[in-house]
């Protein structure tokens, strides 16, 4: 018996997992008993001084979990009141309802009182449409009274697939879910609406907690086997030569951040490719980072004849969008990995077909857009309300034949082959100017050391988050590079 804290399963897949567990001989009512027990335990642990436990029960199995929790809380001496609808006859939820003494009152009858704690067992992950007006009014009453909510599986009104509210939605203080997380538990704003997450084992065998859709939390198993290994015989070129393109005189700081991050992330050499007019200014700031004056795409073409140049980062503070497009063309033909960020992405707004055409064949392009940059590149994907952030990242990855690092508090890393990971552990103070430049440099360094693009991106996002944790709440982007450490 187990939980899977790595896999993310859509609600439809979770339904298949439940069905497979029952088909294997595990009683559905036993699963419901275990689920309701975890809910009751959460309520008792976090709200020992509650006056009433208010259980909102829907007609399905989520409501059945609520009936079990209501019975167990009552047996623990808690004053319990149930509101909602009776379950459909004949199923496990009906059995749970029959085993719990007392009547169910209409939802409209609930009047908030001091000391109430709500158990939201109305719909959970089983609903992907707006709640009705009666439930919406209930949610508003709970919100106005600031009554704490413990959600069963998911707050009612939240899509387990997209992490987006479908209309009115409970704000939970705690969410108790079972066997595996859903995307809506990690994607924003779902993660915030769930409050503190509790992933619980209800007795489903580990062999059944699987899915045919390769979505996971970002975790070490995705990249550990590909991390650069220390070799006593290696020299700086074996550790990879990373090139970071610098912008004009006034905007070179972003490139310096990326270059410094590249060094700290393990690249053996890092060179700033700098416009002639900015070389002297950059030189006053650089020590271990080298420089090369690169004026035009022709200069870049000649330099690319050096096979020791292992990977490239273009975009941070670059400024000149026309020049960025001119530079990406030879990079596309150089058969080496490239990270495009910031202006490197904005240069191809409305022209993703051209960008994708430069990187055909084996995947070696990584793009690192934030929400605004993603929208400029993929307006149609951004405007489709049916798509989750995972869906959008995957679609973009296929369009460009690139790994997409779709940044944010719920960064999604997606590969053209459909693999996707959601990173939700980074500290919120990483949301500061220049932080993305550091991330681009980290990923560039890992690519320069030979990691494949998807694995380098997953590892880079993890390293970036850990550096933020070490740097602390008062950090700026300039503080991050010294805190970058091997995974």
Automatic annotation (TrEMBL):
It catalyses: (6R)-NADPHX = (6S)-NADPHX; (6S)-NADHX + ADP = AMP + phosphate + NADH + H(+); (6S)-NADPHX + ADP = AMP + phosphate + NADPH + H(+); (6R)-NADHX = (6S)-NADHX. Binds 1 potassium ion per subunit. K(+) binds at residues 62, 120, 156. Residues 219-487 form the YjeF C-terminal domain. Keywords: ATP-binding, Isomerase, Lyase, Metal-binding, Multifunctional enzyme, NAD, NADP, Nucleotide-binding, Potassium. CDD domains: YXKO-related. The keyword DNA repair does not apply. (6S)-NADPHX binds at residues 61-65, 124-130, 153, 254, 317, 370, 437. Its EC number is 4.2.1.136, 5.1.99.6. AMP binds at residues 407-411, 436. The keyword Membrane does not apply. InterPro entries: Carbohydrate_kinase_pred_CS (IPR017953), CARKD (IPR000631), Nnr (IPR030677), Ribokinase-like (IPR029056), YjeF_N_dom (IPR004443), YjeF_N_dom_sf (IPR036652). Residues 14-210 form the YjeF N-terminal domain. Its cofactor is Mg(2+); K(+). HAMAP family: NADHX_dehydratase, NADHX_epimerase. NCBIfam families: yjeF_cterm (TIGR00196), yjeF_nterm (TIGR00197). In the N-terminal section; belongs to the NnrE/AIBP family. Homotetramer. Bifunctional enzyme that catalyzes the epimerization of the S- and R-forms of NAD(P)HX and the dehydration of the S-form of NAD(P)HX at the expense of ADP, which is converted to AMP. This allows the repair of both epimers of NAD(P)HX, a damaged form of NAD(P)H that is a result of enzymatic or heat-dependent hydration. This is Bifunctional NAD(P)H-hydrate repair enzyme. The gene is nnrE.
């Amino acid at each position: 018996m187990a939980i899977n804290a790595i896999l993310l399963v859509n609600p439809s897949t979770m339904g298949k997992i439940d069905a497979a567990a029952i088909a294997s001989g595990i009683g559905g009512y036993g699963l419901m008993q275990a689920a309701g027990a975890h809910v009751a335990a959460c309520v008792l642990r976090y709200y020992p001084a509650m006056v009433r436990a208010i259980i909102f029960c829907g007609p399905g199995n989520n409501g059945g979990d609520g009936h079990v929790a209501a019975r167990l809380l009552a047996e623990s001496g808690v004053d319990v009141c149930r509101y909602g609808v009776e379950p459909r006859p004949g199923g496990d939820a009906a059995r749970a309802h029959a085993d719990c003494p007392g009547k169910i009152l209409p939802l409209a009858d609930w009047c908030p009182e001091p000391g109430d704690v709500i158990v939201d067992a109305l719909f959970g992950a089983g609903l992907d449409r707006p709640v009705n007006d009666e439930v919406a009014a209930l949610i508003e009453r709970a919100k106005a009274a600031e009554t704490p909510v413990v959600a069963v599986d998911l707050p009612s009104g939240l899509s387990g697939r997209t992490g987006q509210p479908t209309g009115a939605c409970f704000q939970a203080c705690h969410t108790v879910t079972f066997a595996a997380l859903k995307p809506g538990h990690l994607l924003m704003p779902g993660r915030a609406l769930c409050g503190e997450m509790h992933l619980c084992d209800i007795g489903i065998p580990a062999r059944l907690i699987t899915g045919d859709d390769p979505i996971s939390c970002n975790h070490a198993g995705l990249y550990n086997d590909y991390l650069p290994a220390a070799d006593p015989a290696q020299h700086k070129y074996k550790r990879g030569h990373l090139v970071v393109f610098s912008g004009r005189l006034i905007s070179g700081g972003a490139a310096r951040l990326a270059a410094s991050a590249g060094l700290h992330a393990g690249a053996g050499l890092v060179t700033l490719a700098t416009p002639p007019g900015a070389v002297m200014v950059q030189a006053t700031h650089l020590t271990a980072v080298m420089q090369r004056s690169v004026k035009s795409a022709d200069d870049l073409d000649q330099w690319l004849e050096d096979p020791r140049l292992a990977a490239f980062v273009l975009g941070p503070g670059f400024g000149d969008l026309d020049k960025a497009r001119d530079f990406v063309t030879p990079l596309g033909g150089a058969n080496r990995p490239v990270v495009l960020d910031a202006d490197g992405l904005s240069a191809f707004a409305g022209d993703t077909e051209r960008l994708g055409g430069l990187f055909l064949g084996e995947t070696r392009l990584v793009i690192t857009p934030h929400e605004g940059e993603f929208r400029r590149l993929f307006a149609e994907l951004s405007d489709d309300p049916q798509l989750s952030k995972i869906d959008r990242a995957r679609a973009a990855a296929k369009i460009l034949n690139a790994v997409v690092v779709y940044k944010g508090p719920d960064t999604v890393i997606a590969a053209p082959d459909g693999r996707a990971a959601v990173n939700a552990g980074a500290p919120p103070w990483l949301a500061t100017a220049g932080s993305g430049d550091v991330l681009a440099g980290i990923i560039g360094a890992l690519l320069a050391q030979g990691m494949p693009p998807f694995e380098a991106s997953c590892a880079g996002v993890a390293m970036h988050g850990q550096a933020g944790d070490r740097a602390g709440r008062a950090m700026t982007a300039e503080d991050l590079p010294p805190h970058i450490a091997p995974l």
